[in-house]
Structures are given as C-alpha cells and as structure tokens.
Amino acid sequence: MQQIEITVEALPIVKSSIVLKEKxxxxxxxxxxxxxxxxxxxxxxxxxxxxxxxxxxxxxxxxEWFDWLFVYEAYNKIIQQKKIIKGV
Length: 88
Prior knowledge:
Distance between the termini: 12 Å
Shape: elongated
Strand content: under 5%
Structural class: mainly alpha
Order of helices and strands: HHH
Radius of gyration: 18 Å
Helix content: over 70%
Number of domains: 1
Number of strands: 0
C-alpha cells in the first residue's frame, strides 16, 4: 500500500472531498438500485441470477439485457468504492 503525505492545511480539503465523494456515490447507488429493482420486478428474477443466466448465454442479446447488466455492474462498482472510502 502506498502512503501519501498531506499537509495540515490540506487535511480539511481532503476530508471534505472524501465526504462529498461518499455522498455522490450514495446518490448514484440509490438510483441504480431503484433501476435494478425495476428490472427484477418486471422479469421476476434477482439481478445476481440474471447476471449468471446472461453470462451463460441463456437470455439472448436483447438491448434491455445489456442495459440491466450495465446497471448491475455499475451498482456493484459503486458499492466497492463506498467500501474503500469507509476504510480511509
């Protein structure tokens, strides 16, 4: 792990930037989760199961599947980023 030095003067700016980033990620996560719930309700399948079936080639190549996959992957990346921020 790489360490960085932050001056005392810069510390409040860095802290507020991290807080802002966390808030933005929370808003994005909520929006993506809402979209995921819409897909799940419409197709009566959880996103994790959809992802497995899509990866196995069982669903075809309808544009909606790619949209769902994008939202699912974006949501998971945001959750990972939020975990990283919590560790800072």
